[in-house]
Structure to design on (280 residues):
């Protein structure tokens, strides 16, 4: 097995461990079924007394079989590994750890964030924990609806079931945990929005570009553009900087051309020279 593959499996293991901690410490003990297979397993745990990890594994088996028949081996061994190891961690940790809080709000916040960070790490290393992902793709195949809508349907059904089994208040906490999980997954996968991108439109583009390269030590890309109102062709500058450099960039542009048009937006992830390096 190549070094990259070992690193992927190590990342998937770490991610499933974090996810399992979120379930064991916060979500399951406080009856917060935050969607997906883990949420359904939480409901079944309180109705029948079944262990959450084993229940997740059993629920995933028919989904895997259907996925293999309909979708093929596109998920591969990493999904199988992620699903099994998450189930193992969940039931093993439940034997030793106890919930640090009985407050449903705190549990939904910390449980949702921990689960999201863990799943984000799993996804970042090319893995999956099956369940909701497979169900959404099966919805897409048989019902011809998007995967995003499929995920929403699965989670809505589970949270609705939690509301009927427990109470509406716990269902609302589950919805909060689900939202936080989704946001945490995005933050881990996309890098958390630590950089800014600027588009600069000015009659002094060459001077501004030179000053940015000299004073900020940042690369600048020139894009061809045309003003539809004036019909004039102009060069549009694209530059990506750290958040701490935004004020210097704006002051630099204003000193050269106070009439320049500048658009500054968030960038979730930047790979390359001067920023995060590509993973080897």
């Amino acid at each position: 097995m190549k070094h990259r593959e070992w690193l992927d499996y190590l990342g998937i293991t770490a991610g499933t461990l974090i996810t399992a901690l979120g379930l064991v410490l916060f979500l399951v003990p406080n009856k917060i079924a935050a969607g997906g297979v883990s949420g359904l397993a939480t409901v079944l745990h309180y109705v029948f007394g079944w262990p959450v990890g084993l229940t997740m594994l059993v629920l995933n088996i028919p989904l895997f079989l259907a996925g293999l028949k309909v979708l093929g081996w596109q998920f591969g061994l990493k999904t199988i590994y992620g699903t099994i190891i998450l189930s193992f961690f969940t039931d093993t940790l439940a034997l030793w750890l106890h919930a640090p809080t009985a407050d449903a709000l705190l549990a939904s916040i910390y449980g949702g964030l921990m689960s999201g960070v863990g799943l984000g790490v799993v996804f970042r290393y090319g893995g999956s924990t099956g369940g909701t992902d497979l169900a959404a793709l099966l919805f897409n195949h048989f019902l011809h609806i998007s995967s995003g809508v499929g995920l929403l349907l699965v989670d809505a059904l589970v949270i609705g079931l939690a509301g009927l089994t427990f109470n509406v208040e716990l269902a609302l906490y589950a919805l909060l945990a689900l939202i936080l999980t989704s946001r945490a997954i995005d933050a881990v996968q996309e890098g958390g929005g630590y950089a800014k991108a600027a588009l600069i439109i000015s009659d002094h583009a060459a001077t501004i570009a030179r000053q940015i390269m000299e004073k900020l030590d940042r690369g600048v890309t020139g894009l061809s553009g045309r003003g539809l109102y004036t019909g004039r062709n102009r060069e549009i500058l694209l530059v990506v900087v750290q958040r701490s450099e935004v004020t210097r960039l704006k002051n630099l542009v204003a000193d050269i051309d106070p009439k320049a048009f500048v658009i500054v937006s968030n960038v979730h992830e930047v790979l390359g020279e001067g920023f995060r390096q590509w993973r080897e």
